[in-house]
TrEMBL record:
Family: Belongs to the 5-formyltetrahydrofolate cyclo-ligase family.
UniProt keyword terms in alphabetical order: ATP-binding, Magnesium, Metal-binding, Nucleotide-binding
Phylogenetic classification of the source organism: Bacteria, Pseudomonadati, Pseudomonadota, Gammaproteobacteria, Oceanospirillales
Catalytic activity, as annotated: (6S)-5-formyl-5,6,7,8-tetrahydrofolate + ATP = (6R)-5,10-methenyltetrahydrofolate + ADP + phosphate
EC number: 6.3.3.2
InterPro entries found in the cross-reference section: FTHF_cligase, FTHF_cligase-like_sf, NagB/RpiA_transferase-like
Keyword Kinase: no
PANTHER family on file: 5-FORMYLTETRAHYDROFOLATE CYCLO-LIGASE (PTHR23407:SF1), ATPASE INHIBITOR/5-FORMYLTETRAHYDROFOLATE CYCLO-LIGASE (PTHR23407)
Identification of the protein by name: 5-formyltetrahydrofolate cyclo-ligase
Cofactor: Mg(2+)
């Protein structure tokens, strides 16, 4: 039986937080290895990622790799005007950071260039649960869904490749999805890469 969104979120988040630092480090290494083997990762120049929170799988091993390969990284920032949307701003290890209203670290925006979501090549998104056919459930704010809603509307406009990052146990046979949920082009875990449209 399909669980409701609230129960599933609670269970998955608790399981994520229960991982030991050692398990997290191992998962992060395997994830990085799996991403590096993808052609679309090599081709991407402008890549958004996130800093891990609440037991999310950690993509930050990619930071030095991307710098060496001349890729520009971005972090999401809560949009100061357009409510409940994300902006993306360049990020490196020296970027000044602050905690936002969710206590999540984000770059200080002052004077920073902003890259619109449409102009990114690859977006590595955190998630709470996924299905192997591209279904994604986040923390429940609808931020990623609103920001990338254009992917639902304009099929002709290619836009960035959306890849969910997760621990493999976050996979569900079937997810309770809603019409506004933006599907993923793929999911990378510590175990493998699930390809949908990539
Ligand atoms: N494109 C949209 N326009 C307006 N409201 C939206 C849109 N997408 C999602 N929402 C609203 O956001 C709320 C949360 O959505 P949902 O439960 O899918 O979050 P989520 O996918 O877990 O979060 P996130 O996208 O931040 O990871 C819902 O009540 C929904 O109505
Ligand atoms: Mg959603």
């Amino acid at each position: 039986m399909m669980q409701d969104r609230k129960t599933l979120r609670r269970q998955m988040r608790a399981r994520r937080r229960a991982l030991s630092p050692r398990q997290q480090r191992q998962a992060a290494r395997s994830l990085c290895h799996n991403l590096r083997s993808q052609l679309w990762f090599h081709q991407a120049r402008h890549i958004a990622l996130y800093l891990p929170n609440d037991g999310e799988i950690d993509p930050t091993l990619l930071i030095d790799l991307c710098r060496r390969q001349g890729k520009q990284l971005y972090l999401p920032v809560l949009h100061p005007i357009r409510h409940n949307r994300l902006w993306f701003t360049p990020y490196n290890r020296n970027t000044p950071m602050r905690r936002n209203c969710y206590r999540i670290l984000e770059p200080v925006l002052q004077g920073k260039p902003i890259r619109p979501a449409q102009a990114l090549d690859l977006v590595l998104m955190p998630l709470v649960a996924f299905s192997a056919d591209g279904g994604r459930m986040g923390m429940g704010g609808g931020y990623y869904d609103r920001t990338f809603a254009f992917k639902l509307q304009e099929k002709a406009l290619r836009g960035p490749r959306l890849i969910g990052l997760a621990h493999d146990f976050q996979r569900q046979e079937k997810l309770p999805l809603e019409p506004w949920d933006v599907p993923l082009d793929g999911i990378a875990t510590e175990r493998c890469v699930y390809r949908i449209s990539c």
